[in-house]
Amino acid sequence: VQLVESGGGLVQPGGSLRLSCAVSGITLDSYAIGWFRQAPGKDREGLSCVSSDGSTYYRDSVKGRFTISKDNAKNTAYLQMTSLKPEDTAIYYCAAVLYCTSWPDKYWGQGTQVTVSS
What we know:
- By secondary structure, this protein is mainly β.
- It has no helices and 11 strands.
């Protein structure tokens, strides 16, 4: 099983980025995909999750700014991020899990850096 994130980079405050999580070895019609981030000196936190049936969940701090989606045909999940703030700076990870209510313990990507700065 492999998860590969892409799409990170440097963006100005108020800008947007779309992260991708390309998955192989499992299928998104059987697994949920969660997006997480970890800022320096802070714990990893869950941001959003899309379940195998397409239900979506968001952390309060990103509701209305981040949108999770997936394309089962491409076996890829996405995180569209808008109105980015400096405090969104972190390494962003995707992970696969059977249910969005579970913390992933097995299938993680390597992460992609997002830096929000002017």
